[in-house]
Fold this sequence. Notes:
Oligomer: heterodimer
CATH class of chain A: Mainly Alpha
Low-confidence stretches of chain B: 359-364
Largest interface: A-B, 51 and 48 residues
Helix content of chain A: over 70%
Number of domains of chain A: 1
Mean pLDDT of chain B: 90
Structural class of chain A: mainly alpha
Strand order of the largest sheet of chain B: 1-2
Structural class of chain B: mainly alpha
Strand content of chain B: under 5%
Radius of gyration of chain B: 22 Å
Amino acid sequence: MIAVEFVLAGMLAAATPFLLAALGELVGERAGVLNLGVEGVMALGAAIAFIIVYHGGGHVAAFAGAGLAGVLLSLLFAFVALGLQANQVAAGLAIGILGQGLSALFGKTYESLTVKGLAKLAVPGLSDLPVVGGLFVQDSVVWLSLAGTLAIWAVFAFTKTGLVLRAVGENPKAAHSIGYPVIAIRVAAVAFGGMMSGFAGAYAATVYTPLWADGMIAGRGWIALALVVFGTWLTARIFWGACLFGAVSLAGLAAQAGGVELPSQLLASLPYLITIIVLGIISSNRRLLKLNGVASLGDPFKP
Amino acid sequence: MSAALIWPRLVKRERPSLSIKILAPLVALMAATLINLLLYLIMGKNPVAVFHAMLLEPFISFASFSEVLLKTGPLLLIAEGLAIGYRAKVFNIGAEGQFIMGAIFASALPVWYPMATGQWIWPTMLLAGAIGGAMWAGITAFWRVRLRANEILVSLMLSLVATQVLNYLLLGPWKDPNGFNFPQSVMFQYDAMVPLLIPGTRVNASLLIALALALAAYVFMQKSFMGYKLEVGGLAPRAAGYAGFSEGRAIWLSLLIGGFAAGLAGAAEVAGPIGQLQRSISTGYGYAAIIVAYLGGLHPIGILFSSVLMAAIYIGGDNALVSADLPIAAVRVFQGSLLLSYLVALAFVRYRLVFARSASGGAS
C-alpha cells in the first residue's frame, strides 16, 4: 500500500519530462515533420536551465531560456530539413548529436552540482484523501503541464488551427493548393516542439532531479518519441502513456525499497524494454496506425 | 503566390556532377571547422592552437597517425555496414548497442577460458562478436518485419539496454576478482589478441579485415544484383514489390549486415587495443559511424575517406584536450555540426539556387 501511495504521489512529476517532450513532438508530427533530435534538444534545455537556476536566475527565467534554446536549435533543424529538404532522419540525428554536445560543453563545470527545486502546491481537500491524496500535491510546472495538455487536446479537437495542422501533415499538396503556407506552418510546429522539448529538459534538470550530470536525460527524449507512436498521435493517449512511464520509473524504486532483489541494471533498462514491447504491440495493429497515423510523416514537401 | 518576389528557389539538378559530389563533404568540413573555431574563440580558447592540435597534428606525427589508423578500423567497419542499410532506407541507429554486444560475445571466450591457448582464439572471438552484433540487430529486424515497429526507435532502445547489460556483467559475474573492484573483466591472454600489423604501434590486423570488408561492400553495393535490389527497395518500394523483391528480406539483410559489422568492430576493440571488457569500450563509435556513413555519401569508397577524417577528429580532440585545454565534449559538437554542414552542402549538390521572380507560382 505504501508503494502504491509512493508511485501515485510521484507519478505525475516523473511523467512530466516525457509528457512535455512528447506533446511538442506530437504537434510537429501532426504537421508531417519527424524530428529525431528531441533527446539532444532536451539535453541542451536541461543544461541551460540548470546554469540559469544555479546562478540565481530563478525558474521562470530558466524555463524561458531553455525554451528559447529549444526553439533556436529546432529552427536550425527546420532550415536544413524543411528549407533545404534534407533527409529528416539525418537532420534530426545531427541536431540531436549537436544538442548533446553543446549540453556537455556548457554543463562541464557544473558536474554534480545541485540546485533547489520547486515548492509543491496542494489542492485543498483532495490532498487529504487517503492513498490518492499524493496525486494532488504537485509543483506548479506539473499543474501547468496538465493545463497545457488540455489546451493542446482542445486545439486539435475544436479549433481551425488544429485542423490546418492536420491538413498540412495529411496532405500537404491539397493544403498548399487551397492557399496554406505549408512550409511556414511546419516550421512553426517544429519550433513549438523545440520549445516543449526545452521545457522538458528544464523540468528534468531543475525540478524533478535538481542536479547536473552529463547525459542525465538518459533516453527520455527517445522514449517521448516512442510515446507519440504509443498514443497513436492522440493527445489523451499520449498523456496516459507518459503517466505509465512515470509510474514505471518509480515502480522500480518502490520495488527495491520494498526489498525485492533485482539487479539495478534491470530496473534501469525497464523503461527501454517496456518501450520496445509496447512499440511492438501497438505497431502490429495496422488498423490502429492506419486510422490515426500521419500520412505524409517525414516526407519532404516542395511547393 | 504574391509574396515570393526574389526569394531563392531550389531547382533540382538534372545530374549532379561527380566533382560537386566530392566537393560537398570538403566544403562541409571547412564550414564546420570555421564555425567551431569561432565557438572556441568565444569560449576563450586559442583557435590556432586548437586547429593545429585537432586537424593538423593527427596527420603530422607518425605516432599520432598510427592512432588515427587504429580508430579508423571500427568506424570504417560500422559505417560500411550502416550505409548498406541506409541506402535501402533501413535506418539502423543502434550500431552502438550492436558494437557493445559484439564486444560482450567476443569477451565470453577469454573470460570463461582464461587459460586457453592457441592461435584459434582471436579469430573465434571476432566471429563470436560479429554473430552477437548480428543477433542483437536481428531483434530490431524481427520487430520491424513482423511487428512493423519503427526500426529507429527499437534499435536505439536496444543500444540503451546493451549498455545496461554491459554494466551488469562488469559489476557482477564478469568482474575481475583481483581488479580492486573496478568494473572491468580480467585482462585477456596473449592468444586472445589480434596480431599487430605495424610494429611499435597499436595498429592490428583488424584494420586489414575492415579494408577487406570495405572492398566487399563496394562489390556488393556497386556491382552485385543483390545490392541493386536492396537499393531499389529503398528508392521505390512499390516498384521493387512488383518486381518480386521482398521488403522483409531487404530489412533483415540490411540489419544483419549492419549488426555483423558493428559486432565485429566491438570484438576487434576488446581483442585489440583494450585487451579486456570494460565500460569505456566505445567512445560513441556507433553514433559517430552514422555521421561517417553520411559524410562518405553512403558510398563504400567515400566512407573510406570519411572514416579516416572522423578518426582524426577523435585523436585531434584528445590532442586539443591536452595542448589547448579543450573540453572533450567539443568533439561531439564538432561531429554534430559536421553532419549538419554536410546536409546543407548536399542540398546544393541536389539542387541549385535560382534567384528569380517565380512567374507561375503554382508550378511544382
